[in-house]
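For anyone still unconvinced, we reproduce a single protein record, the chain in one-letter code, the fold tokenised, and leave readers to judge:
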Amino acid sequence: MCVAGVQVKPSLYGNGKSMRVQDLVLNQRTEILRVLCSSGSAEPVEHVTDILLSQGELTWEDYQSIHVSGRPLYTNARQLLDVVYLKGESSCGLFLEALKQVLPEEQPAGFSFPDHWWDPEVREECQNTFCQTLLTQRPSLVSTLQHCVDGALEALLTSAHFTSADCEGIRLPLRTPSQQARCLLDHVRAKGEAAAKFLLEYIQQGEESGSILNKKTQTVSREFLKFQKKLRSSLSAQSCFLSTYGGTSHMSLDDIYTDGQLELAEACPDVHGPIGLKDITGEVGMINEEADTVLVSGEAGSGKSTLLQRLHLLWAREAALLEYLLLFPFSCRRLNTELSELSFKELLFQHCCWPDRDQDEIFDFIQDHPHLILFTFDGLDELKQSFSDEHRLCCPTQRAPVHVLLFNLIQGSLLKGVRKVVTSRPSAVTPVLKKNLCKEVLLKGFSPSGIDCFVRKHHSDPTVAAKVLQSLHTNTTLLGLCHSPVLCWIVSCCHKELLGCGEGSPQTITDVYLTIVEHFFQHHSPLRSTGKISWHREYLDPVLRLGQLAFKGIVSTCYIFSDKDLDPCAITKEDLSLGFLIQSKDLSVFRSKCYEFLHVTMQCFFAAVYVVVSKDLDRSTIPKLFELKNLKETSLRTACFSACLLYQQVDECSLDKDATAVETPNLQMTATFASGLLSQRHRSLWLHCCPATAIDRKTRQVSKCLSKGMQKHFKSIPQPVAGEKKSMHAMPGFVWLIKCIYEMQECSIAKDAMSKLEVDHLKLTYCNIGPVECTALAFVLQHLNNPVGLQLDNNTVGDVGVEQLLPCMHICHSLYLRNNNITDEGIHKLIAKSIQCDNFHKIALFNNRLTDACTQDFSLLLKTKQDFISLRLGNNNITAEGAKQLAEGLRVNKSLKFLGLWGNSIGDAGAEALASALEGNTTLVWLSLVGNGIGSAGACALSKVVKNNVSLEELWLTENCITRMGVECLIEALQHNANVKSIWYVHTIRNINCPVLL
């Protein structure tokens, strides 16, 4: 006999020899109440209730009716018995079993439980959601959480799942630890799936690290735990204030940190869209189980260093990364300055945190248990040497150059099993490095909501924050620049100078950096006149001194400067007080005082100023800067720099034949700034300190370099295969040249460059195209002579980037924006512009964030443009309502040939709406409705299209739920239409000449 899914022994029912379980509960009611309440604690009642709740015998409403705050314990216990009794035999039996678990040693004389009243088979419960898991696993979760409520609350608060008020409500002193745990679970369930998932993962991590620690405490000395505490304390002190953008001590990381967009570089079937911080070191997205290194790649200013700083702080507070007992942070920028050979042990302790005692014991533990250790390396692209696996090193006590130690750590030859997180710019990631990665994570800057969040955090006054955001949304170019966190910080700092300028508002990155330099000078001497022209006069000498240091550092891959390194460039204390050079932070107590520019982009900017203004550089500097080669030789041959070597060993290393051009990204950025500084709009800034002839010559040099670089790209375009149109797959260097042209703001240069480009298709996939790059592309591509197909798949265009592309839409006959995090808002603006463009005929938007709200825009597009050919909206969030909207446009349209809606959720109702609109269509050739939850009703409706549509050739219906009836309708329809070549269903082609009935 089965009651509510529980197998019950027939002997307890109907044979008169055994008492029914329900009667047993009733007859022993007084005794049950006594054993539940005699201790005066609510724990037995609550524990029994937890078990019944986890088994599904109690609903959440039952639970709330039993546990009423402030009601006497006996009353709650009676309510529990009443609820259980009224539910019948099954619930009474499960109640007694739960009571037996809770009170195994306290069963009184005369109190009896039924023997084996049910099969010992465990009931299978459906755990489709994380919230359901919190219920089904409630007893064990309460047992675990009551020992770590504070840690769980801290983690939930840090991750923004809980507020301070939530935490205070759970921590009420009147609650016991187990009651706090139950209250915590109840709050998490109320917050929804995301919070439930986070808590379960936190508990799992805590159990793993806790069990490991318990095993090791027998062998780990107190000195190890002291060292761990010292390391946490040091990391906490170094990480609690934002250090990336100038080290301003008043800017707490907790107050300002804003998540950037994190995505896996390799497609993962279990992950759709962004991932979180915890996924960086987790198992999500693993592509090479043998490797231990995670790469976080992102452009300069995308927030890589700040992300690592956040991870360091969370570990130091024991709020994340609980599976790692030790975390060692390294800066590749600082490792550049290490000239002597070191052993791995010396590298570990000298550059991070030195144990006070028992160094050998702690180091032995690290070697014996590498899986409990985490290393982070910030800025791999800033090393002088590019990654190589040629020099193998396995011995941790053998001394070697620092880069050799680092490369062997990354590839696993040294200390295999240690998890490493490495950051780098994409351009420095070589195939040799990629093969040593367990996964790659892309950091793509701020989303529009991230910009909003950062600005609101930066400005404590909500009124000011609102005004800044309002101004940004009226200046879309500046909003696009804020996609980069470092530029968002600059805009937030300089909002008074940058916003509300009307036509004079900043358009380029160079404009923004000129403004922040003015901002710094203004704050340094608020009483002095510091207009846009005067600061170049008053502060020219310190600017040149800083520029000299910056340029020398760029060409020699040096970003950390000691006191003695400042002397050759005559850097004074007054220059340091300006704020552009800041003291470099270091965990090691053995390091002398060092300095760095407040951000590497600022170093590139000052280097560019020096290139533009300096009279000491020879004429070959700019051409070599844009060619990105032999620049070190140029700097060393110059009289100025021959006397200004930062230190001899660095230059010897920089000229070593094995050193490669890993500094290319910073040289490119320097060249980009030089282009902007030599534009006509900024030409007047330099005339007081540089002859006009010299400025004109340098401007001509830049223009010539850009033209020559573009021509080189165009010449590399292969001839098209017979019958195909000519296409160009652009490389990242092409995007850089486009950005340089935009910085110059010279339409004539853009026209000259584009007049020589004759292709039908321009492909820029995986080129790190964000809103800033979209602005530059639109500025240049609008000057093309002939329409082009623009493919921007797998970038970070987003809604802001879409808006930046609008000026070049008239020259696009097709636009491909797969996987670009675009929403309905961006589509609304894009379609409004596209309708006005005669050349525009195709669009592909697979794998974005589109919903039914955008289908009205596409319906309008289909109604308005009777020459539109292809619409592909696969893998979005379109339902039956969206399909009905599209159907309205399809009824009117007389040109569409390709319609792709795979991976949505249109169902039968959506399929029926589309079928009704397409039955009499005479143009559609290809239709994909793969994976849309379509059943036989939808298939039968589509069979009318198959039967009557005179143009349809191919229909895709795989990954749906079509049954025999639907298949029969499709096969019967095929027999009436010879034009339909194939219908794809369950990976099988249904050929019209030999239909097969499943």
